[in-house]
Amino acid sequence: MLEVLGDSARGEEFALVRLSVDGDRIVSADAPGLARSLDGLTLLEAAAVPGETLAADALANALAQIFHAAPAPGRIAVAMSGGVDSAVALLRAGPDAIGVTLRLWLDPAGPDTERACCSPEAVIAARETCHALGLPHVTLDRRDRFRRDVVQPFVAAYERGETPNPCGRCNGSFRFDELLDFTERAGADVLWTGHYARIVEHEGGRLLARAADPSKDQSYMLAPLDPALLERIAFPLGEQPKASTRAEAAAAGLAVAARRESQEACFLAGDDYRTFLGRQGVEAVEGAVVDEDGNELGRHDGYWRYTPGQRRGLGIAAPEPLFAIRTDAVTNTVVAGPRALLACDVVEVAGVLHRQVELAEAKVRYRSPGVPARVEPTGSGFRLHLVEPAYAVAPGQVVALYDEGAIVGSGVVSSARRN
To answer: What is the CATH number of domain 283-337?
Structure first.
């Protein structure tokens, strides 16, 4: 027999749930505020019991510590963000689906915490969507690990003078590691998410590929995902536009049908990354803004406040527009110059090639078009020889390589130069 406690508080209100569990069944429960008694229910059945918000929170916190379920053919675990995309994925997953939400760390000082996909409000919305459909929902509190594995490396990368992409690190490893581990514990066959991407057969194996709707395609953010995991993952929205998703949610009467989009880099909670980094203790030390020859052009208030391609904020009067070209953390300098100096056609990438390709389309930013490139394997990843120059390519950025829409390689920029 196992005794498990779960609690939740908001302001002066408090709720406590106490469970006595034998195996996967609740023998007795002290759980006021829920819609029904938990006595005699399995953990899976208990996860579908709704209740007052604090009581449901407390139950979720208790269940997360011990949750498991016997394998069931056809059961689908659905990653729930609290938004409309994952809600429609849940709708399609059928009557044996189970929702799971990761609660992740976000900056409590941020100005817009409610739009973050990992916020308490998002968790509640995800759970209420599941319960409205009579389906179980489990919340996994991963705030500490997320801060250690995603947020702290993001801060450290800026201190090194890089331009990191935390969404690639989160989606490419952290998030799916946690979700697939849960999928196994929940006795489910497969994990579904609301991402707009597809999985295709390519040269005898599965690869991630672009969504049918280019305006919503999220394959770039998922590029670091190991193709070996795709046997256990599905993206049911990859063939349709966002408008169809909202219409489907509205037709089903889901409360999240009109919910706003969640933010990128959710842990910033709607704040500017510079302000966030300052709160995380990154020191802003004044230094020199110099040209390519080392001549001082002006002063800056912290090298990490400037990213390649940035024009605003340099505060330098010049006969032609000047841009931040690169930063140097060791010397605390920002190199500025005309836009032509941002051009590069050779990019070194630390990463992996899933297929040996000579030519591919290289994408180095989420909202930038891909560039044709010749691909040369290296000991640490690959080197790209761009057919036409790209601008403002910076160390730390994610690179996705596409061949006929499928991702055949990915990695992180280590350096970029003009040949």
So the answer is: 2.30.30.280
